[in-house]
Amino acid sequence: MLWRTALISSCRLLPSCSHPAGRSFRWSVIPSAHRRRSSMDPEVPAIDPSCTPAESPASGMSSDATGSLETMASEDLFPGETVVREGKASILFPSANEVFYNPVQEFNRDLTCAVITEFARDLLAQRGVRVVVPGEKEKVLVSLSEESNEAEEKTGAEELNVTATAGEKCEHGLRVLEGLAASGLRSVRFALEVPGLQSVTANDFSSKAAALIARNAQYNRVSHLVQASCRDASMLMYEKRGKKERYDVIDLDPYGSPASFLDAAVQAVSEGGLLCVTCTDMAVMAGNSGETCYSKYGSISIKAKYCHEMALRIILHSLDQRAGVYQRYIQPLLSVSADFYIRVFVRVFTGQATVKNSASKQALVYNCVGCGSFHLQRMGRRIDNGKHMKYSAATGPPVGPECEQCGQRHQLGGPIWAEPIHDQEFVQKVLSAVSGNPSRFGTSKRIEGMLSMVTEELEDVPLYYTVDNLTSTLHCNTPPLLQFRSALLHAGHRVSLSHACKNAIKTDAPPAAIWDIMRCWEKENPVKREKLSQTSPAFRILSTEPRLEACFTVREDANPQSRKRHLTRFQENPQAFWGPKARAKAGGGITTDLQDKRKKCQNKRKNQVTDSSQLKNFPCKKFKQGMCTHGDECCYSHDADQTCEEKANN
């Protein structure tokens, strides 16, 4: 193994020699006679006297909703470097785009800290460790029974005799891996905010990112927990497949698709361990490139209003399929769609008998291209005979060659995960912890609002309809959301909203019942049928009389609690250009002002040059091929040398 040394100066931590990409390295301090003390020196940390103890890197920072960028004094940082303060972490960043950071995903990081904390609380309780989170009120259990079991009391007292707090190493704690750490912000936040950790491995394939991770770990004084690693993430996880070497938590948040890391991840996570995966390639997973989605995740995505929930079920299907190869299976804890990405939290277990149920957990989706009605077809059948389970192939299809409602054809998508995508009991624990300690995270209000909607969702109903899509199909007025929900409840069906879409309607009602309600609404708000084409879905649907009489009287249970309490369910963008950021560049050659770049490239294909006088600056392609017949009357230039000189001068 090649050891790597580094020189810690007042401005940055620089590696002194190169190393193979497949080797881990260790940082050692080389004394320098010309360097002075700075905040990077572990012996005497230099803290700005104007900062309060709560603002110092050691004690952490207060959470900001969007993450704050502050430029420190020029004598403490390299020119142009900034400090990103998020949660309790203070992360040093170079001025160039050499390391990726996006403040939009603070919600992602806050939610991950909350989920891992509750996961650690449940898992470490089995190891006799009690997790303590600052700001949380201790739960007092009162026994109402006069006869208490002394043996159980002694056992409980002996089990939870170790206390784990954030920032301290727990010998019986969790081993965490962040496969693509970039600056190490997430790993540093884990070390500072999540109690019960034994170690956090922050890995990145970029040597510059690995150097920055080590520096940030020292700057935040969590080097005893966070270890920087410069490895290929897949190879690192493949080497940790042994039962005693596996990680309890693996976090994958790549730039784009995580497909290439999933096979290694399902093997490197421990028994019952937590796998956290982010997908930002929503253009692929939401139906724009179904063939690409199939090549990456083994499932075809289709363009539909429920595309965001379908994306969640596609990644869960892919994880379960890859885990099944190694006789393992997944148990989803929480799956969310937020902003421009999706995020899933699943536990991975081993069990050959349970893996046999995998086929019956997947389903194909038949989606009507005319009216948007959809049906699910399970991939397999599972029959319980009492003593054992019987498995067989599924029978189908559930639809005919044409849609029963509008007569249009069907699209075939999937397979997707057709089982619940949340563990309601676990989600309720996370929600209670966040709502009981709102000052812990900067995005606590949004977490509370989203998790409240998750607890209200129908867990056994995959996918959803949208009211605006139903009304646009019939070209009629849109019914109020509460009235439409009430009509479904009056008809004897269950209904809920979805966190993935503002106008979503999740219901166990069949498509025929949904369109009957829409027919009844159209009778009260008629459309001009003479203007409808006889081949349109609206004409075919409205030509059929409804089989039920819908009641649109608003019911009390039609309005969910999250809506009554005015929780932050669908947050508006707090800043301009709130969304994905550019990929990190190895050389840092990127303009610092992204707004100028956006303005320059905006509508570059639409705003093409049409003035004939300006076209003379461009060479004639047909003239180069000897095919131009316009001669001097050609609007393009026939003088190739002159055109090249003009371009060179410009």
Automatic annotation (TrEMBL):
Basic residues bias (residue ranges): 597-607
CDD domains: AdoMet_MTases
PROSITE patterns: SAM_MT_TRM1, ZF_C3H1
SUPFAM superfamilies documented for this protein: CCCH zinc finger, S-adenosyl-L-methionine-dependent methyltransferases
Positions of the UniProt region annotated as Disordered: 36-66, 582-610
Residue ranges annotated for the C3H1-type domain, each copy included: 614-641
EC number: 2.1.1.216
A family per Pfam: TRM
Enzyme class: transferase
Keyword list, A-Z: Metal-binding, Methyltransferase, RNA-binding, S-adenosyl-L-methionine, Transferase, tRNA processing, tRNA-binding, Zinc, Zinc-finger
GO BP, sorted A to Z: tRNA N2-guanine methylation
GO cellular component: nucleus
Example of a GO MF term: tRNA binding
Zinc finger (C3H1-type): 614-641
Catalytic activity entry: guanosine(26) in tRNA + 2 S-adenosyl-L-methionine = N(2)-dimethylguanosine(26) in tRNA + 2 S-adenosyl-L-homocysteine + 2 H(+)
UniProt family annotation: Belongs to the class I-like SAM-binding methyltransferase superfamily. Trm1 family.
UniProt xrefs under PANTHER family: N 2 ,N 2 -DIMETHYLGUANOSINE TRNA METHYLTRANSFERASE, TRNA (GUANINE(26)-N(2))-DIMETHYLTRANSFERASE
Identification of the protein by name: tRNA (guanine(26)-N(2))-dimethyltransferase
Gene responsible for this protein: TRMT1
